[in-house]
Q: What sequence folds into this?
């Protein structure tokens, strides 16, 4: 889909369909000859109620009026929802070129929301479809954003970020027999080849063991599929500020190991690589936007499967940091992979860290699909990460770290346990476990188990959501020299 901004009037753009949003108490700002659009509003067929749609034809075009509700309540997320709602209707109408006439006096974030909502809603995972269904939704060929003032910068940025988020969603939706850790590593290497200031290395089982990553290696020993330690650097010449590190969990399929998961939902465990996918998508967008910030990406990728060599409940392993870990639950594997990846990031000079992972089912119970869980060891860094979540619309809710919780992850026979027996406060226990491996570096942990897939949003109803891409890009932009 081509996306562009223009200051031309919608009727002059060549679009076959024009979308116009109306706020409560407002009239159609630029009506067409005969007052057709305002007449639709006056008759009650069109309404200002949020997401209410009405369609008419005039002047050789389709006109879609959508209610935007209360202007004071309008934000970028409402723009995304409105845009996705219009996109769905345009699919039914056979639209090929859509022009959005932006309401007056939007900020760039809200303007970008219309682009993000359209691009994200256009995502379809068809990689394994041998034949697309006839009479399916026609592909929208072009999106034009019309406003009195130039929106080129906001529209271009939103397009880059939304496309990167869709790239992450495609990684998420690929099945585990296709998206292996090796395939994820190949994606990282291809990303580095495409961008001058990104470098990438991919190390396998032998290198992981040689690095002393005993926790990561223990998870990987249950599968014959080669694991991958993926390390990326984005280092543009104009970079400033601290070295940011984004650390992602990328378990490409999680059976739970010998502490096996229930069969009913196991097919969804391909989404256990969502954190690593978000890191890759964010780096793609950061490089395309040429942000002036240094970023270190570390992704630990493996399957958590069962063979004759699989780790067993009760095993004790030694992490790269030197701490020993009792494996009391083989389904608490993500924190073991991340523990060694965090140590690796610190060793490579990370000065600020965000780790992102589908870590616990407990955070789904606590926060559902509205917020991701946020934990942090530094107030200033926590505020920066939380602000990036608010700015991007990927909202976070802070949960506590506390010495009493830290006591719970102490092991009986080793330094740490990967899963306290009573299962209380499981998201916090997971965060406290990871806390031990961040050292003194300002660190934040995002538990995205509830928001990584099946969001139920008009722009991401089912499948991978790409959560974290927009947030990490916003965080990088806030630290950028550009």
A:
């Amino acid at each position: 889909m081509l996306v562009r901004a223009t200051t031309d009037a919608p009727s002059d753009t060549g679009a076959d369909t024009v979308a116009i949003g109306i706020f409560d108490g407002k009239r159609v700002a630029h009506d067409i000859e005969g007052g057709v659009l305002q007449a639709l509003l006056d008759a009650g067929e069109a309404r200002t109620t949020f997401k209410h749609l009405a369609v008419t034809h005039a002047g050789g075009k389709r006109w879609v009026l959508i209610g935007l509700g209360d202007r004071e309540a309008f934000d970028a997320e409402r723009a995304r929802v409105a845009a996705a709602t219009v996109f769905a209707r345009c699919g039914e109408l056979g639209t090929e070129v859509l022009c959005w006439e932006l309401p007056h006096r939007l900020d760039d974030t809200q303007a970008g929301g219309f682009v993000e909502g359209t691009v994200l809603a256009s995502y379809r995972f068809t990689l394994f479809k041998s034949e697309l269904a006839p009479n399916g939704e026609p592909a929208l060929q072009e999106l034009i954003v019309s406003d009195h003032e130039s929106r080129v910068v906001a529209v271009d940025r939103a397009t880059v970020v939304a496309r990167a988020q869709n790239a992450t969603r495609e990684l998420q939706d690929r099945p585990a027999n296709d998206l292996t850790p090796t395939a994820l590593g190949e994606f990282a290497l291809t990303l580095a080849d495409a961008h001058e200031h990104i470098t990438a290395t991919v190390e396998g089982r032998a290198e992981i063991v040689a690095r002393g990553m005993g926790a990561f290696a223990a998870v990987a020993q249950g599968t014959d599929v080669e694991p991958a330690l993926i390390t990326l650097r984005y280092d543009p010449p104009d970079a400033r500020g601290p070295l940011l590190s984004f650390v992602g969990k990328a378990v490409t399929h999680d059976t739970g190991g010998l502490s096996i998961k229930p069969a009913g939902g196991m097919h969804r465990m391909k989404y256990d690589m969502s954190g690593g996918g978000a890191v890759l998508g964010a780096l793609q967008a950061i490089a395309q936007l040429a942000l002036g910030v240094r970023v270190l990406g570390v992704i630990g990728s493996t399957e958590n499967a069962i063979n004759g060599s699989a780790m067993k409940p009760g095993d004790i392993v030694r992490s790269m940091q030197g701490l020993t870990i009792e494996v009391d639950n083989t389904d608490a594997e993500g924190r073991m992979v991340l523990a060694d990846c965090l140590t690796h990031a610190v060793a490579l000079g990370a000065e600020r860290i965000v780790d992102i992972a589908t870590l616990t089912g407990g955070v789904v119970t606590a926060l559902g699909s509205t917020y991701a869980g946020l934990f942090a060891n530094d107030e200033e860094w926590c505020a920066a990460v939380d602000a990036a979540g608010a700015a991007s619309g990927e909202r976070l809710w802070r949960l506590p770290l506390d010495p009493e919780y830290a006591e719970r992850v102490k092991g009986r026979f080793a330094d740490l346990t990967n899963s306290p027996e009573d299962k209380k406060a499981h998201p916090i226990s997971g965060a406290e476990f990871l806390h031990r491996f961040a050292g003194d570096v300002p660190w934040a942990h995002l538990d995205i188990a509830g928001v990584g897939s099946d969001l139920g949003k008009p722009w991401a109803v089912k499948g991978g959501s790409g959560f974290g891409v927009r947030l990490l890009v916003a965080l990088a932009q806030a630290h950028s020299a550009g």
